[in-house]
From TrEMBL:
Protein name (Swiss-Prot/TrEMBL): ATP phosphoribosyltransferase
GO molecular function: ATP binding; ATP phosphoribosyltransferase activity; magnesium ion binding
EC number(s) reported in the record: 2.4.2.17
Gene Ontology biological process: L-histidine biosynthetic process
Presence of the UniProt keyword Lyase in the record: no
């Protein structure tokens, strides 16, 4: 059964495409092709702006897709979040000119520029602002101080905000890439199975990115101390060396621990240490 998949163009596209590639899905098409051909999984693929994806998945135009949490909230889309991928994390922030006083700004009527009409309205109403909302269509940070007193916009590093002599005064929400599905598609047994299979493959890739396979040899009298050092997914694999005294030990360990783990293993008596990337892990 063919799943209809909608992919984002723009900022969050790169990591999503890399994930699909690591899963084993190849997309063929040039940069101007909005309907690439998919190989490796039964998919009908279309590329659209991230802002439109949640609504179209909710409507059933597509079975599954990838979108930022900010646009899901902005569109009030009734979709099922299958997996928070955590890609491209951003904050939606309120900003004012860097020399202005935030407490003073909150006491007067303000013009607020934002690409997020609903997110901005919810925030401003909740915090009791007297405001006029100006809908922006990109480059929101250039509005203050002449054309707006405040902006509500997304940022990952704050560099663009600082470059335009603005300062962050509040965080409205945090967002990252979500893998989403149409609720009716999940009720279809065939589509649900395919979505679950795709999710399993994606999870295997994500798990593999967090771990490495480490292998080593050790003597009879050091094997226990070496095994105790290994933070394996389960128990490490230990086997006798052929025609020799000692053991071969291997384990999948968190990548973040490897820098401190290898010196500790060497000190405990491990030899012939090999570190290997893991493509998939479940």
């Amino acid at each position: 059964m063919t799943l209809k998949l909608v992919l984002p163009k723009g900022r969050i596209n790169t990591k999503v495409l890399q994930l699909l590639s690591d899963v084993g899905i190849t997309l063929v098409g040039d940069d101007r092709n909005y309907r690439p051909k998919a190989y490796g999984f039964d998919l009908e693929v279309k590329l659209l702006k991230s802002q439109n994806i949640p609504s179209l998945v909710e409507m059933g135009q597509h079975d599954i897709g990838f979108a930022g949490l900010d646009w899901m909230y902005e569109r009030r889309s009734e979709v099922e979040v299958i997996k928070n991928l955590g890609f491209d994390p951003v904050k939606i922030v309120a900003c004012i000119p860097e020399e202005w006083d935030w407490e003073e700004v909150k006491q007067r009527k303000v013009i607020v520029a934002s690409e997020y009409k609903r997110i901005a309205t919810d925030y401003l109403d909740k915090n009791g602002f007297n405001y006029q909302l100006l809908r922006s269509y990109g480059a929101t940070e250039v509005f203050p101080p002449e054309d707006a007193d405040m902006i509500i916009d997304n940022t990952s590093t704050g560099t663009t905000i600082r470059a335009n002599r603005l300062k962050i005064v509040d965080t409205v929400m945090e967002s990252s890439t979500q893998f989403i599905a149409n609720k009716d598609a999940l009720k279809d047994p065939g589509k649900r199975q395919d979505i679950d299979n795709l999710l399993t493959l994606m999870q295997a890739v994500l798990n593999g990115r967090e771990r490495v396979l480490i292998e080593m040899n050790c003597s009879n009298d050091t094997v226990e101390s070496i095994v105790n050092l290994l933070p394996a997914m389960r128990s490490p694999t230990v086997s006798r060396l052929y025609n020799e005294e000692g053991f071969a030990v291997k384990a999948a360990v968190p990548k973040k621990d490897i820098q401190s783990l290898i010196p500790a293993l060497l000190q405990a008596g491990a030899t012939d240490i090999l570190e290997t990337p893991i493509r998939k892990s479940l």
